[in-house]
């Protein structure tokens, strides 16, 4: 693969909306099970409404505590090195976007009985575990050294074993053990879903959604990986990758789970999926822009690594298409020399940014993200009551997911207007179906 330098991943999603989070706390490492002042029983929907994150963490501590105890009975080193690492990683970071989508999707559709409350919280934990799997494996594939400001799992495992993560043996051991950490997180996620017992009709729908989501997540990651090796692809393929990697797995499927728990009908569910998919694709388009134009001091991750790694983003595909249509050989040469170049300098990145601005690719992507975000909000407002608490919170969450990043430099006023006809295959609406 065409990347040579290790990178840092310290942020998973945009910041969450202003939702009351009460006293939701992240557990200290190796501290599992309910705390002494964890609040009212979790079967009360109103109590969870006031502190969704706290309720998910309380549920997670209980579930993960059981899993770690089971692991300790098998072998102490397995429990300490792998099982506890899965638990701590899951509890210590992230914005809990997926559990929030499950919860507010359920509440916006009228759910809230005791069985649905418990099932929603457990499904939220399962989604956090599958996210742990995805992030640990992603850091291995990208050879990232940091995650959330701390050593990535494969780095920490090598160090814990007394090995240098930069040595051949240390790198091999760390990455191999990290793959097992991700596998264990996925197994625990599946176990959590299997042990969750909502109403019979919801159970079948949730299992179907879960099965689809796991495969979509892997497919999206593979398309991203394949695009780096083959040098990218069309704008349409970039959108497809974004849909699989971000929109479906991170937004649409969690929201569909919440709707299923509430017993929402097919029409309502389809409308919610449309809104969620639009928001998810908008998020990925914003994230692609942030990866090139973001300020590392504000975003917490290096700028330009998507270019150095050769990621087949929609932004890049549009720029190539527009440069080719204009027969701009200089712009194409800049992109050819930069994409997949792990040694790309600051000056080289500045030149790439200039191409994105001059071709109008940046402005085109920003407008598409704006339009998708507007579609998500409009579709949701047509589907549920956004004046009620559940609908209002869900609307704010989708707006946050699709919102413009605050740490991206503004586009120059001289950037040319971008027409969709030259953009390669811009999304004219959120892709439908599954």
Sequence-ordered SSE layout with sheet pairings:
Layout: E1 8-9, H1 45-50, H2 52-74, H3 76-92, H4 97-108, H5 114-142, E2 146-147, E3 150-151, H6 153-160, H7 168-194, H8 200-230, H9 235-261, H10 266-293, H11 296-299, H12 305-308, H13 314-325, H14 329-338, H15 346-358, H16 361-383, H17 389-402
Parallel strand pairs: 1-2
Antiparallel strand pairs: 2-3
Helix pairs in contact: 2-3, 2-5, 3-7, 4-5, 4-9, 4-17, 5-7, 5-9, 6-7, 8-9, 9-10, 9-13, 10-16, 10-17, 13-14, 13-16, 14-15, 16-17
Your description of this structure?
With 434 residues, the protein is an all-alpha fold. It folds into two domains: 1-198, Farnesyl Diphosphate Synthase (Orthogonal Bundle); 199-434, Farnesyl Diphosphate Synthase. The chain has helices spanning 45-50, 52-74, 76-92, 97-108, 114-142, 153-160, 168-194, 200-230, 235-261, 266-293, 296-299, 305-308, 314-325, 329-338, 346-358, 361-383, 389-402; strands spanning 8-9, 146-147, 150-151. A three-stranded mixed β-sheet has the order 1-2-3. Strand 2 (146-147) and strand 3 form a beta hairpin. The radius of gyration is 22 Å and the shape is flat. Mean pLDDT is 84; it is low at 1-30 and 413-434. Residues 407-420 have a biased composition (Low complexity).
């Amino acid at each position: 693969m065409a990347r040579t330098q290790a990178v840092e991943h310290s942020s998973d999603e945009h910041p969450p909306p202003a939702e009351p989070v009460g006293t939701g706390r992240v557990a200290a490492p190796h501290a599992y099970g309910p705390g002494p002042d964890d609040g009212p029983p979790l079967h009360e929907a109103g109590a969870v409404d006031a502190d969704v994150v706290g309720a998910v963490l309380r549920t997670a501590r209980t579930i993960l505590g059981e899993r770690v105890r089971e692991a300790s009975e098998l072998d102490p080193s397995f429990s300490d090195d792998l099982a506890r690492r899965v638990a701590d990683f899951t509890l210590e970071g992230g914005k809990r976007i997926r559990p929030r989508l499950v919860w507010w999707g359920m509440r916006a559709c009228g759910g809230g009985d005791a069985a649905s409350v418990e099932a929603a919280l457990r499904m939220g934990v399962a989604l956090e575990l599958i996210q742990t799997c995805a992030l640990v494996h992603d850091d291995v594939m990208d050879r990232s050294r940091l995650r959330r400001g701390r050593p990535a799992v494969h780095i920490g495992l090598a160090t814990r074993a007394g090995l240098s993560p930069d040595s051949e043996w240390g790198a091999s051991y760390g990455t191999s053990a990290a793959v097992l950490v991700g596998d264990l997180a996925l197994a625990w996620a599946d176990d959590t879903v299997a042990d969750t017992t909502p109403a019979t009709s919801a159970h079948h729908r949730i299992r179907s959604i879960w099965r689809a989501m796991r495969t979509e997540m892997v497919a999206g990651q593979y398309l991203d990986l394949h695009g780096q090796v083959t040098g990218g692809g069309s704008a349409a393929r970039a959108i497809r990758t974004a849909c699989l990697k971000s929109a479906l797995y991170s937004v649409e499927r969690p929201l569909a789970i919440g709707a299923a728990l509430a017993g929402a009908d097919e029409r309502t569910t389809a409308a919610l999926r449309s809104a969620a998919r639009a928001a998810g694709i908008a998020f990925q388009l914003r994230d692609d822009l942030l990866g090139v134009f973001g300020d590392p001091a504000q975003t917490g991750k290096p700028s330009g690594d998507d270019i150095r790694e050769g990621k087949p983003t929609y932004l890049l595909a549009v720029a190539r298409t527009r440069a080719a249509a204009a027969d701009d050989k200089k712009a194409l040469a800049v992109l050819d020399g930069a994409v997949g170049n792990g040694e790309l300098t600051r000056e080289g990145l500045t030149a790439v940014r200039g191409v994105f601005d001059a071709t109008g690719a940046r402005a085109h992507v920003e407008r598409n993200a704006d339009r998708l975000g507007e579609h998500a909000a409009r579709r949701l407002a047509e589907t549920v009551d956004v004046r009620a608490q559940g609908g209002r919170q869900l609307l704010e969450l989708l707006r946050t997911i699709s919102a413009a990043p605050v740490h991206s430099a503004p586009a120059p006023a001289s950037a040319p207007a971008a027409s969709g006809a030259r953009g390669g295959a811009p999304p004219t609406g959120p892709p439908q179906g599954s």
